[in-house]
Amino acid sequence: MKIDITSLDGEAAGSIDLDDAIFGLVPREDLIARMVRYQLAKRRAGTHQTLGRADIWRTGKKLYKQKGTGAARHGSARVPQFRGGGRAFGPVVRSHAHDLPKKLRALALKHALSAKAQDGAIIVWQEARVADAKTKSLKASFAKLGLTNALIIDGSAPEANFRLAARNIPQIDVLPAQGINVYDILRRKKLVLTKAAIDALEARFK
Q1: What is the pTM of this model?
Q2: Are residues 116 and 175 both part of a single domain?
């Protein structure tokens, strides 16, 4: 798959052949959905917890005698039936993460990249570099390019000035090549890859 390379100013800078094994697959929604579920589950804190009957400070003495009152049989006042008692089967601190094979995760990333390529939502830049860390000027450049909602992937580490200038622009994310992931690809309309990012991705999947 051939795609044009542009600069941050919108000027043509040649073209590049994208590897069909990474960007030319027929996207499978089931794989992508499984990967998104895996990512979102893994990042959940899992710190929700309620008080069970063992966590309630209240006397354990039997409320009243077993027989002869005409009322239901009760023992502890800590049980869930009573106001202020413990909650039955409430949430506890736990990890929501689940396993997903490494090969399947890699395949899901390829399918997400292929889905963006199929939609014509991939832009390739020669590099992501600015002279000054000025958000205003970078935002103006993005406006000229029509870039309002995008994920920008650079090489091993994004250029410092560009990262600082872009971090306060809404709906613009900047990540290194090793940080690319399915969820962030899908949540942004455009995927911007630098030439260094493409080289890193192709080396990663060899």
Answers
A1: 0.84
A2: yes
